[in-house]
Amino acid sequence: MHPTAGTENADSARRSTRRALLRGGLVVGGAFAVGGGAFGWRAGAATPAPSAATDQQILNFALVLERLQAAFYTAAVDDDALRGELREFAEIVGGHEREHVAFLEKALGSNADSQPTFEFGSATREEKAFLDAAVLLENTGVAAYNGQAANLTKKSLAAAAEIVSVEGRHAAWISDLAGQHPAPRAADPGATADDVAATLQRTGFIKEQ
Amino acid sequence: MTPREEISEPTIDELASTLAEIDADGALQETAEAAFGGTRAAFLQRSLAAAAAAAGGLFAANSADAADVATTKNDIAMLRFDLVLEYLQAGFYTEAERLGALTPKTLGWARVVGAHERAHVVALKRLLGRKTVPSPTFNYGSVTTREQAFIRTAVGFEDLTAALLKWQAPRLDSRSVVAAAITLHSVETRHAAWIRHLIGLQPAARAFDKPASQARMARLIASTNFVSAQPQLAGRSRPRLTG
Questions:
Q1: pLDDT value at position B8?
Q2: Nearest to residue B66, comparing CAs of B25, B97, B38?
Q3: To pair with B191 at 20 to 30 A between CA atoms, which of A102, B4, B111, B200?
């Protein structure tokens, strides 16, 4: 492989990830970034009151994550490399993520963004790579929802809480299967949208919006 | 020490209403204004930073956005309820750990989860500041030494605490309190999935976890008979009860 090829691919993946996740302006150090500091409240940050417009941005952001998770587990089951409880995990959790996608698509209606293209490489074909990726995706899902909770309207918050609850269960389950701590901390800090984008960039899973 | 009005052994109904109490006498409103006044912003900032530090020592102490923080009567009532529930759980796991009668696997779980619940107690007390409530007295009977009874209770505690926090989240007034409470919520679901996995139950049984109301939780807590005496409510927030 040409020495620069990897870098170019990484750059391309990074741009795609940011485009896909941050289209609605859900971005950097942003107006409603919650999750960086003491339970996420930033000094002096202009944090607009929750609104339908903000909900739409956040739900589209969540939709990218849920579609990524759903596609990941579907591909892992299709690739048929997992055995035993790990396969059971992929089947059950994949079903949950598809339900989350369907819920968000319905809630967003015609405002739902188009589906990105994903590419998982060996992560759906090799047990260890699958475990690493699944732990990362589930923990990232928890942090992403927790980071946006206070920015949602009450109605969307109620729905997001029902979803993040299940993401927390997935995270604990897959962590236990991976030999990692299921509940490593007393609080699950929220991540900003930008932090979530950066984490997903590093996976290289998102190719095209 | 200030003499206090003695509180007799409560009935189950009294207990449930104590846990669900929403400051019916209005004393809270008065003391909230007196306590916060001009120092309200600084007080809340301190509380939030301390709560964050307590709940895992994860966060840098940031300034709170004073304009957006409001400790309302509604929020205080919910946080107080959560605090009593965390006292109940922390006491339960701590006793199980101290008595050491469970299997090593279960004890290992209890040790970690007990530490988390104790951290949640500290975090909630800091969030409540002067509006905190003292712990009731608990009597867990033999449940903390019997493997199956302990596990059944622990699964119930964890699943239901998560369900309660889900019910509360959209009912809280302050966005700062929402941001804090939601970081505890997902940890409770992790605990629930973890112990379910330990004993061969489905860790994540459905795609959406439903909420459970505070009133329902109060009835469930009462039904355990673990609370042997209600909290001493005659603290400084209700000076007219002092003798």
A1: 33
A2: B38
A3: A102
Residue B236 has pLDDT above 50, yes or no: no
B210–A162 C-beta distance less than 8 A: yes
The 10s digit of each residue's pLDDT in B36-53 is: 222 333 333 333 334 444
- Chain B: closest CA distance from residue A161 (Å): 6
Total count of domains within chain A: 1
Inter-chain touch B179–A37, beta carbons under 8 Å: no
Enclosing domain of residue B93: 12-61+70-237
Give B64's pLDDT tier (boundaries 50, 70, 90): very low
Q: Please check whether residue A37 lies inside any domain of the structure.
A: no
Domain of B214, CATH number, reads 1.20.1260.10
Question: Among B59, B119, B193, whose Cβ lies nearest the Cβ of A39?
Answer: B59
Interface of B with A in 11-30 (CB under 8 A): none
Q: Return the ∠ at Cα A134 (arms to A132 and A138), rounded to 5°.
A: 125
Within a domain: A46:
no
With respect to residue A40, please indicate whether it lies within any of the assigned structural domains. no
Q: Would A168 be classed as within a structural domain?
A: yes
Taking CB atoms and an 8 Å limit, are B170 and A155 in contact across chains? yes
pLDDT of residue B144 exceeding 90, the answer is yes
* Average predicted confidence (pLDDT) for chain A: 84
Q: Residue A61's closest CA among A124, A11, A19, A5? A: A19
The number of distinct structural domains making up chain B is: 1
Is A59 in contact with A51 (CB distance < 8 Å)? no
Is B4 part of a structural domain of the chain? Answer: no
Higher pLDDT, B145 or B34: B145
CB proximity B191 to A under 8 Å: yes
Contact between chains at A158 and B170 (C-beta distance less than 8 A)? yes
